[in-house]
Amino acid sequence: MNPLKESIHFYARHIESLLLISAVIVLPLLLVHNVAMNYVNFLAALTGAPVVASFYNLFLLLLFLTLVQIVFAQFVISEMEGEEKPLRKAFRSFWESGFSVFLYGIVYVLAVCIGLLLFIVPGVILLVLFYLTPYLTVMKQASPWKCLRPAFEMGKKHFVPILGLILLTSAIQWVIGLVGLASVTFITTSFGAVFFTQMILTVLIFPFIAVMFTMYTIKWRTELMQAIEAEKLEAERVEAERLILEG
Fold it and tell me: How far apart are CA 84 and CA 130, in angstroms?
């Protein structure tokens, strides 16, 4: 299984459903983020505390990112398992698991943001080690708190690939956003046009990123389960040989 190729094929085959999810879930959260940030930036300008605005912006972005991952992960898994009405299952999973993931996200993102602002490296390490928790929450149908250990183990084992994917997707988003911004400002300098373009680009790009991380998580979890099963069979074989020798 090549997760990147699978992600491209999946995105192309189900782009209508993915964009519908993005429009219903991602777009409203982006609007909330921008409204909140306009208010916070205004207060920061009055009080002279830009660091607070930067912290709040980072916190809110990562929190919303953590939250919306579950709906895309559920849709991908439901489609791959051939479930009926996967779109409905994805939305239901979001409403059922959203609050617990939101609470987890507050703790997780707060720790990451503090680590990034103070020493950078601890924040990056925390970000990567527990980044896959929302995906495992969906796959295991369990609370995010119960998925911390498997997420940590997976994050530790695949630290470099996860960090690479995060950096790659961030760079792609930045480049596409920059190109979109340049294209719009070439035509008009209207704030509304620039704002709308950035929203549309995010709605288009984020579903693919979530699909890609879901595919990689499925691959790594499958490999982990196969390794555990192989160890179990080996232990049973050794035990059987011991019993034969003793008998």
Answer: 31
Span between the terminal Cα atoms of the chain, in Å: 44
Tell which residue, 158, 151, 121, has the closest CA to residue 133.
Answer: 151
Radius of gyration of the chain (CA): 21
Q: Report CA torsion sign: 241, 243, 246, 247.
A: negative
pLDDT below 70 — which residues of the chain? Answer: 1, 48-49, 181, 184, 186, 188-195, 236, 239, 241-242, 246-247
Q: Which pairs from 33-41 meet CB under 8 Å and 24+ separation?
A: 33/60, 33/61, 33/64, 34/195, 36/60
What does 68-130 look like in DSSP terms, one character per residue?
HHHHHHHHHHHHHTT-SSHHHHHHHHHHHHHHHHHHHHHHHHHHHHHHHHHTSHHHHHHHHHT
Task: Indicate yes or no: pTM above 0.70.
Answer: yes
Dist CA 42 CA 48 (whole Å): 10
pLDDT of the residue at 188: 67
- Return the SS3 of 82: coil
Is the Cα dihedral 238, 243, 246, 247 positive or negative? negative
- Write the CB contacts of 75 (distance below 8 Å, at least 6 apart in sequence): 14, 17, 18, 21, 86, 87, 89, 90
* Separation in Å, CA 139 to CA 62, 65, 181, 198, 211: 21, 18, 37, 31, 13
Whole-number Å distance between alpha carbons of 192 and 202: 16
Residues in the chain: 247
